[in-house]
Amino acid sequence: MLPDTKNPVADATDTTNPAPTAAVPVGRAGATVRQPSDSLTFAEGWWLAAIVAVLAAAALSVVVARGKDLSTAHRAAAAGTALLVVAALAIVAQAILLWYQARMVGVTKPAPAHPTLAFRRRGLKAAIIGQDGRASTSKTQVVLWTAAVVWALINLLLLARAYPGGSVFAKAVTNSWRPEYLVLLGLPVAAATTAKAVVASSNSGHGPASSRSSSAVVDSLNLDRVYVRDPVPPGAWGFVAGIAELFTGDDDAVAWADLQYVVFTLITLLYFTVQFLARPTDGLPAVPAALLTLMGVSATGYAANKIVNTKGTAVT
User: Fold this and answer.
1) Is the pLDDT of residue 105 over 60?
2) pLDDT band at residue 272, thresholds of 50, 70 and 90?
């Protein structure tokens, strides 16, 4: 029977000596894996955080939106409040996803015996974490640019009363709309879609094989080349590990195409933020053609690198 190459963690399960159904699953460093009821309790904590964040964001938004002075202090307050609103929306989404996932786990299957992938993809983290449990460079670009544009638009809404005629937001999305933002938002989506498609179509459409299943995949599919990608090992999670995964490849070495993509994205985001904070009444700032070109070249290089790498290595 062909191993489940689309879900490498399935190969790590010891089917020859299954654990008793009554046993309590154990995760990293002997930590007890949350059962569905524990997950529901954990989600309730996020619901509490969501309520607090929404109330705080709503209260500050009312105060800031009532201001009619475009002073530096008022603009700084609007920028900070807009950031809080984005964070509150993210926390609400996290609570909803955790609640939903906890209910689905409780109905369809018990807590997994190997929780690494499930832990890294739990809740909103799945927006940037790939199927192998690693932080995805292309998905992260999508999240960063979406959050940045949403933050800027909320900021403009908060400053609407302080601008003569109250048209700063309307002008930003109509007459002063910058078409380059279609590129900045579309390029990461196109790169992410391409990366997902080429990985899913590897090994004759069966997806990446793990090291343990590669021989069986070669024999079953009669392949000349096989693409192998193992899931993250136990214990490899955390913010620092996620940052490192943004510019490293499957072999944990620096991937220059990924690094280039990350660097040019950060430079463009920094330019966007500085220009917007300096002159928010101009709406979304114009992005220089040079930065757009660098973003396009780096996104293309990233996608091309994915296509080349997923061809795999020759079978010997």
Assistant:
1) no
2) very high
Q: Is the pLDDT of residue 3 over 80?
A: no
Q: What is the pLDDT of residue 6?
A: 42
CA torsion 301-304-310-316 (nearest 10°) is: -100
